[in-house]
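Objective 1.3, modelling of assemblies. Example input:
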Amino acid sequence: MGQTRLRLFGLVAVALMLAAACGGSGGTNPPAKQYKIGLVTDIGGLNDKSFNHLAYVGLQKAITDFNVKGDVKESKTGDDYIPNLTNFASTGYDLVIGVGFLMQEAVGTVSGQFPNIHFAIIDGAGTDAKGNDLQHTNVQSLFFREQDAGAMAGVISGMLEKQGKLKNNKGVISAVGGVSIPPVNHYIAGYKWAATMEDPGIKVLVGYSNDFTDPAKCKGVAQGQIQANSDVVFQVAGGCGLGALQAAGQAGVKSIGVDADQKDADPSVIVSALKKVDVATYTAIKNVVDGKFTSGALTFDIQNGGAGYALDNVTLPADIQAEVTKVQGEIAAGTLTPPADIPA
Amino acid sequence: MAQGTGAMVARPRPPGLPSGPTTIARRVVGGLAMPLGSVVFAFVVGGLIVAVTGGNPFSAYAGLICGGFGIGCTQGENPALQISNTIVFLTPLIATGVAVALPFRAGLFNIGAEGQLLAGSMACTAIGIKFSTLPTPVLLPMVLVGGMVAGALWAGVAGVLKATVGAHEVVTTIMMNYVAQWLLRYLIIGGPLQLAAGTSKSLPIGPGARLATLLPSDNSLIVFGLPASVYRVHTGLFIALVAVAVFAFLLWRTTLGYEIRAVGQSQRAARYAGVSVRRTIIVTMLIAGAFSGLAGAVQIAGVDHNLTDKYFSDTTGFDAIAVALLGLGSAVGIVLAALLFGALHAGGSVMQSDAGISSNLVLVLQALILFSIAANFLGAMRSLIPGLRRPPGAPPPGNPAAALMTEAAAPPPEGTPSK
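Predicted structure (tokens):
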């Protein structure tokens, strides 16, 4: 049926491209070696305003700085992870980057098939079906100390609540997690730890939506927390969490964005806890170009500029700003260490 | 019988329709023209969209063809790998395509193939984990049949509701999709199938529950220049082809198939002829669900080996609606349409990295194909509205796929294989 037509198209297209290729070769010397970098997004796609977008930003910066060839494959469904990774690996890319822990198993499988290709994965490792790290020597894990970023959000929320500057003012703030997995809980751990440090009497409610995509689910969880007098809702649930930001806006309380700067997502967002996937992606590419690829984990935190915060629709009083800067300096210096597990 | 089917009252066939070899030939040509035309239309309009947005449609389609069929690759893609990816993608589309096409023949619109597929994959995984130590000859049939039963029950709910209280199957099957999706979430996030706290996947099924791949899953064996394990084509392909053959046989060579078609063309006439409409509706949905459930079980047994969060974003059961429509609800048509959609799926990402055109173009093409088929609905209606009826002597209209959903469709020639 369609294929005869398709083949015809193909022949025409190939002929055209050959013609174009012949006409285009101008006789200049090719550059020494152009590294090829492949980026595979997860199902969020490039326009997720979060991980995938930031990874793309990092790739673009690397293309400019190191003259690498950077190509992207967006995954439409989870079925695409393995074909997309395999495709880059089988066509001789120097580094194949998988965005997000959803791709752990796929990276584990494909990195085993192509031991001579470098892989990097954001927020995960190359694992087997049971989630055990296969520790392939061609895989680099790009991890983040999310608790550093969460702590900055926690300092601001804790101080605002302590000073009675918020709506309910009953000493309650909250967090909406997507699923209870390590990257989510790291954020919440830093948040709760820092808020309690600033305001020892504060109560931090933690709820999970069991979802990363459906805003309605997170909205429901957030509304429950706001009814229980929460003044600040910290969303740690990706696209689902946008519903939590909305719920805060509608109830007249404040909210905190996550991963990327979510200033524009809702007017209630006062600060965003940042996970700088662009920095991580750029660093991974730079390492390959410099011949310094290492397997195992590479961790990004406040100290190396891979985690942080962005102030959004708010101007902080001078004393709070001073405290935030002080805590940031202490975390960077290592004198303060936010915990990875949510404190009791 | 409830009157929820009021829109599907019987219409008499226009009198004086000629029949004979010429008509059949015309119908075959007309039947091919519609899907081919839809695909060509989609590719032309898609090409225009690419050109208007500053891309090169020729390099876009070259990328699609390379990705889908391994032909004319410019960036060193391995043709065998691309073809194997296409086959992996098309396998579940065949069985779910059947699960949509069969109810169409009975005048039912099964939008629940996705939920039935999930039910099948959940049952397959649960059985494959629970009895993981059993050997293949015992466990593999268990997981496949388990998946079929689960899918059948999932669709059967809609069938029973339709037959007893007249609840519209479009609504009930959509709702059952949600039930399946949330049940899946529960099972692998905090539920009994969860691998470990903090994960969103299940344990892998036992080795005895897995379908063999055509090539050994070996990283050191080099086939066509790549490790053999990258070619993921599995024996589920043959199961899908058997399923589609069973569908054709059932529909055209059995009493039940005759009853299904009779109910689809006119419930009143079928009832008058002694066919139990209620029973036929329920049985049709049960069988359709079994096909979808089989697709889900084969996907677990052949490709994934465990339930993961990727099933949250699975769209196979929805793509199947397009496959069934484009394939005109016939066995051969479904296989060809599944091949096209599988190739589009596999080709999208190659097009994106080679030609720099967003793989969303694939979704645009799929939508355009569907749009074009739906637009032909008007062609079918035209012959039924008196003012627009073709003049006497004009050739009869073809067999537009969309009209399969209506009882107004002209019946396909009796007794001929569903070519």
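Chain A touches chain B through 55 residues (CB under 8 Å).
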